[in-house]
Amino acid sequence: MSQPRIAVRLLDDRLREQLPAYASPGSAGMDLRACIDAPLTLQPGQAELIPTGLAMHIGDCGLCAMLLPRSGLGHKHGVVLGNLVGLIDSDYQGPLMVSCWNRGSAAYTVQPMERIAQMVIVPVVQAQWEVVEHFDATERGAGGFGSTGAH
Ligand SMILES: O=c1ccn([C@H]2C[C@H](O)[C@@H](COP(=O)(O)OP(=O)(O)OP(=O)(O)O)O2)c(=O)[nH]1
């Protein structure tokens, strides 16, 4: 499958050596680094916006980017994303930031250039509303929230 090309600006020279990359041929995400000059300690419950040193412009190609936690950091240290998922619009050109949230019970210190989140590029479509009075019938209808299998 051809790889879409996405314009990126390096806002910090350290990124020249450490541009986010796919770790293996099957990796879904690229790790993003904390582009900070000094260690940053997150107390339990604290969230901070951390720069990645990148600005990207996805452009008009039917894609967006999603920022997700790294599994190890989230599971072992409780460091996830303050917004749970970061959604990067295709027309956004500002600095790419990661909201780092320590949801754990111990302080965690983020080191400069530590990998703090991962970014996945995903297809997106914009839909249009079609206002109706009634929907075509389906087997599920309005059932939800555990309705299947209920007796
Ligand atoms: O984790 C994130 C989430 C968002 N953004 C940037 C890219 C995104 O395109 C922009 C706006 O994000 P969003 O639409 O989620 O923010 P909002 O709070 O709804 O603000 P806005 O009114 O600017 O859309 O902020 C990041 O850098 N990191």
UniProtKB/TrEMBL annotation:
Listed name of the protein: Deoxyuridine 5'-triphosphate nucleotidohydrolase
Keyword Disulfide bond applies: no
Binding site for substrate: R70, S71, G72, N83, L87, I88, D89
Required cofactor(s): Mg(2+)
EC assignment: 3.6.1.23
Family that this chain belongs to: Belongs to the dUTPase family.
Signal peptide bounds: none
Ranges of residues in domain dUTPase-like: 18-149
Superkingdom assignment: Bacteria
Pathway stated in the Swiss-Prot or TrEMBL entry: Pyrimidine metabolism; dUMP biosynthesis; dUMP from dCTP (dUTP route): step 2/2
GO annotation terms (biological process): dUMP biosynthetic process; dUTP catabolic process
GO molecular function: dUTP diphosphatase activity; magnesium ion binding
Gene for this chain: dut
Gene3D superfamilies for the chain: 2.70.40.10
Class of enzymatic activity (EC top level): hydrolase
Keywords: Hydrolase, Magnesium, Metal-binding, Nucleotide metabolism
Record field: catalytic activity: dUTP + H2O = dUMP + diphosphate + H(+)
Protein's job: This enzyme is involved in nucleotide metabolism: it produces dUMP, the immediate precursor of thymidine nucleotides and it decreases the intracellular concentration of dUTP so that uracil cannot be incorporated into DNA.
